[in-house]
Amino acid sequence: MSDLYHWVALSMAPGVGSVLFKRLISAFGNPEGALKASAKDLKRIEGIGPKVAASLRRFDWKPMVEKELRSVEKIGVKLVTWEDEKYPFSLKHIYDPPPLLYVLGSLRRKDEVAVAVVGSRHPTSYGQAAAERIAMGLSRRGVTVVSGLARGVDTAAHRGAIAGGGRTIGVLGCGIDIIYPPENRALYDSVASQGAVISEFPLGTPPESDHFPIRNRVISGLSRGVAVVEATLRSGSLITARFALEQGRDVYA
User: Fold this and answer.
1) pLDDT single digits (tens) 22-81
2) CB contact set of 126 (below 8 Å; sequence gap of 6+)
3) Distance of CA 62 to the CA centre of its chain
4) What pLDDT, on a 0 to 100 scale, did the predictor assign at position 235?
5) Which of 186, 249, 193, 198 lies closest to 221, judged by CA?
6) Under 8 Å between Cβ of 240 and 153
7) Domain 3-75 top-level CATH class
8) How far is it, in rounded angstroms, from Cα 225 to Cα 128?
9) Taking the CB of residue 152, how many other CB atoms lie within 10 A of it?
10) Which one, of 133, 135, 198, lies nearest residue 167 by Cα?
11) Distance, CA of 232 to CA of 199 (rounded, Å)
């Protein structure tokens, strides 16, 4: 079995998020060691109680991982762990980086110079035009534009980056094999061909509401700054801005 096999397995384990994944690697050296650890040893890890330890010991991960790897290969998605040299440097150094990224397209060193453009899913015509102009201007200057492939400002940002001839990265709050919103199918393909579509979620993961705040830390983590266009007070865009400040990024609004 390849080491990647165990990275996928641990990333899919019940109760294991990115912070706990990091603690397990620190304690056991690698995902394989964590998966083979006894319940007694697992319970020594901060954040693991008897229930999580027992579920990890019962976790029948081999059939699940084999199916995941077959599906990933079939659709042409690459898996990048945080030990891979292709893993984005800036993202790797946030508090809770995703241990595993599903990537359609390519991640390049030049993407380290990136700015996120996020905002309302229901912008005014002015806001939509502003987002597209901002992204186009960044793109023409060699800055990678990061956004979430959602309706509204995200869509305008990706389109602006593509029109500017530069690179753009779309971060999903669902499995990379799911197009959400469905009307962005063509945009999804364009982003993948002119940059990358990425997700930390396993294939088939639906676009549930609690996934989007999780992905927002990745949008800010990939970027040197976050430009917010027409966000409401309780919007996901302001969550992204808060993550950006916590990560030491600039915020523009």
Assistant:
1) 999 999 999 999 999 999 999 999 999 999 999 999 999 999 999 999 999 999 999 999
2) none
3) 24
4) 80
5) 249
6) no
7) mainly alpha
8) 19
9) 22
10) 135
11) 25
In angstroms, the CA 43 to CA 153 distance is: 44
Q: What is the pLDDT of residues 146-203, one digit of tens each?
A: 999 999 999 999 999 999 999 999 999 999 999 999 999 999 999 999 999 999 999 9
204 touches 72 (CB < 8 A)? no
pTM over 0.85: yes
HEC assignment per residue over 170-212: EECCCCCCCCCCHHHHHHHHHHHHCEEEEECCCCCCCCCCCHH
> Comparing 3-75 with 104-252, is the CATH topology the same?
no
Specify the fold of 104-252. Answer: Rossmann fold (3.40.50)
**Mean pLDDT over the full length of the chain:** 95
Q: What residues does each domain of the chain span?
A: 3-75, 104-252
Tell whether the model's pLDDT for residue 1 goes beyond 60.
no
Give the three-state DSSP class for 125: helix
DSSP letter at 143 equals P
